[in-house]
Records
---
Amino acid sequence: MNEQQYRQQHHDKGSSGRKTNPFWFAMQLGMFAGLIWGGLRWMAYAFHFTIVVPGFLIEPFYNHSYLVTARGGAAGYVVFIGFSMLASVIYTMFMKKIPGPWAGIVYGIVWWVILFVAVGPMIKMMPPVTKTTWNSIYTDFCLFLLWGLFIGYTVAMEFNDERLREPGGSKGSHNQHSSGPKGASKSGSQARGEESNDNEGRAGGTDSNNQPEPVM
């Protein structure tokens, strides 16, 4: 089986060999993306790296005084997980065939621009970038960039055979390792045969030398 046949056989399949369901894969991926990066963003707000509250996505629907509380932060955390699941489904449905990490990076930056520069300030999610702090801009930009990278590159790994770039090399190395002991055992048996023949020759030579001379 050549490399092309191997790739076609394992196309759109997970590690278990079954075909991956894009929708459920995207839902699970988005849940983990929301849990990880939403939690990191909550920590960044708690340590004053950003002034934008964790529940900024529901800022138009709740009072700001509620969103700065622990309950408001937890509500924002849950909503961010749901938002990440939606964003992951969108990426998987339309961009899953793009290999490499760069599409995910761009995806995260685009969402940051939409939420923090374009739409967000218009609907009072957060203050305009011209009226916020540089620390907030840097923090949220980097977090969304990494969030997009996490989603995009995970999807690329699953649907573009990033794990199977060199199947022939791995097989060749396996064959080399498997053929090595056989060759070694064969050479060892030959060496033992030669040694036994040598010992027999030596024994024969010793017996011929030790035979009594005839008496005249």
---
Amino acid sequence: MKRKLTPKQRKFADEYIKSGNAADAARKAGYSKRSARSVGQENLTKPDIKQYIDEQMAEIASRRIMDATEAVELLTRIARGEEKETVISSTPEGVYESQKEADLKTRISAVKEILKRYPGDDRLVKAQIRKAESEADIAESKAKLLRGGKDNRQVKTDEYLEGLKAILKDE
């Protein structure tokens, strides 16, 4: 059932939501300056005005706070690579802004977060996650090699060769 507030009462309620001050809200709504304080307090006791204020405050709160559905939708967009991240690059020619998808680790993390909300021991899903994590590790190792770094096998091989050189030097 829709409450009937006068335009002045609605203006009072809206101003009260903004400031939290009943007297100030009454003055801004058009009530006389002399009676603003008492009218403001009286308006706050009227059920229709109070209910309107409570509904507006609840609506404001619901818009500001993410609910579970929104959270899962965001995680899904990240996992699918639909959510883009702004990256700012600086070069001698200037500063550039670009959009990029989330990296594999972030996407895997999003998938894990989604799956936490759906209990069950699905071995296929776990295998797919393991596979995706392995692919991410391989891609990371390849990227490191391309940048000139060494992976664990190379480090172990180098240590082994150094050990052999030391043994040969002692003989």
---
Amino acid sequence: MLSSEWPARIFLADEHPIFLAGLKACLAEQPDIQVVGEVNSSAQLVQLVETAAPHVAVVGESFNGVSVAEGLLSALPAHRVILVAEEADALRAHRLLAMGARGYVLKQSPGSVVLKAIRAVLRGGSFFDAIEAPRTPSRNGRGPVLTQREQEVLRLIALGFSIREAAERIGITTKSAETYKARARLRGQRVARV
């Protein structure tokens, strides 16, 4: 985000008014963030987000048990959207990532995590703290074969993203992504030899 666009314009949408109020209060403490709109109904969500023209929209993934994520991402592909989910679902998170979501966090996450996600997306990256793939134990049972970051990089590459795009999606440098990819390959070779 360019400094001329300060403060960052944030739109909030969730079916739970209490959650919205708490999130709005958390963001109000940040001098570089301005909430430019909020809604707790999915009826005009796409129209309201488009009208508010936020830098980032923080949106509850579903309203009354019905997903609004796909509709929003399809209707506004150029908008930066962080989805807030009720529970961790790595498969769903990956599908939404492929559709253009820039962030995916759990509703149970503290406000600091949502702030971290907003700031990562404003910098042009992505934030997916809710993607917790099961760790693969090594053959000797001494822990994971791959670190979480290595798994994230490989997952994005497997989804068809280039190393540069993968790095941008998770908010790291291309060089770091290449390092994680190389480490994952080395770990895989060591396990194959055991």
